[in-house]
Amino acid sequence: MKRSTSGSVLLITPDLEGLRRFVEPLNTEFFRFPVPTASGWQGVLKDYRPTQRELRRLVEAWRSSGPNVEKLLQSDSVLAKAAQKFSAGLIPTKGPTARLFYLPVSESLDPADPTTTALGLFLDFLLNPFNTQLGGPCLKCGKYFVKENRRHRVYCSKRCGLRHTALEVNRKRRADDHAAKLRIVRDSILRWTRSRTQMDWKDWVLLETRISKNWLTRRLKSGELSEPVKEVSARSRSSSRPTP
User: Fold this and answer.
1) Taking Cα atoms as reference points, which of 133, 115, 98 lies closest to residue 14?
2) Residue 169's pLDDT is what?
3) pTM for the model
4) 3-state SS assignment for residue 243
């Protein structure tokens, strides 16, 4: 956020830069916290995931509501209670108009509680007129991001978009290849059932298609193939029964 230079009475006006800063905790799992030691300051790794999870939950609840702030507060009593306890103060200026600063979370709440941190960040987000430009999670990397325009975006960057598209293309190609392989095997099995060969069906398929027995066994276990029965043998048994 930047210091107000417009007609706003707020000391700090929520803006697009503030939204960019809001994205950082949404994407942070760990951070280094400086602590004093005998040899100087040392960075200690802190787990930020509890705050991140709560913050992401609040964002998704906001989206699911419409977004509709009234509906959101009606569905979340903790959030609604925190929203009613803003503390504000007047900042005198040398001009004719004073400025207002606010703390989005009551001082009575534990500042070390991850939920308190998430509430403060989220309530500030609710006041930001640019909050609808929040995008994410990215389909490729799972990160949140700021949409630079109003058009819908599902990737945080062009790079992620290209990577995800390539991944989907490769996944579809593998699925198509797998389906084609199954069709070839089923056709081969059908010929085996209609033949008079004494060869095991897996040996038959291997000879015809060069598809390994291990692959066939895995498909049996997955349920994609079933153990075949020879049609010729069934007809032979039927014709060999004695006539009553």
Assistant:
1) 133
2) 79
3) 0.62
4) coil
